[in-house]
Amino acid sequence: MKETGITRQLDSLGRIVIPKELRRTFQIEEGDYLEFYVEGDRMVLEKYQPTCVFCHSDQDLVEYKGKNVCRKCLQALESQTAQPEEK
């Protein structure tokens, strides 16, 4: 893990400010969502990237019934529902 030498104090509401140079480096803009992970004894923060609920691709996503689905999986679902059921 690369050290930055940057420290920030937590305020009384539990907030911290992410330094501008880090936001620029990681292309984090106002309004972006961030995810928190725990890896061992470390807390990891990364920019949220929506993915397909089926294949986890982050390419060519559409929202289907409130879920992110890539077009490839959506086409597969549509082809399955278009086929008559076997008895």
TrEMBL record:
GO molecular function: DNA binding
Keywords assigned by UniProt, alphabetized: DNA-binding
SMART domains with a match to the protein in the record: SpoVT_AbrB
Keyword DNA-binding: yes
Domain SpoVT-AbrB: residue ranges: 5-50
InterPro entries given in the database record: Repressor-like_regulatory, SpoVT-AbrB_dom, SpoVT-AbrB_sf
Top-level division of the source organism's lineage: Bacteria
NCBIfam families: lp_hng_hel_AbrB
Designated name of the protein: AbrB/MazE/SpoVT family DNA-binding domain-containing protein
Species the sequence originates in: Candidatus Egerieicola faecale
Lineage: Bacteria, Bacillati, Bacillota, Clostridia, Eubacteriales
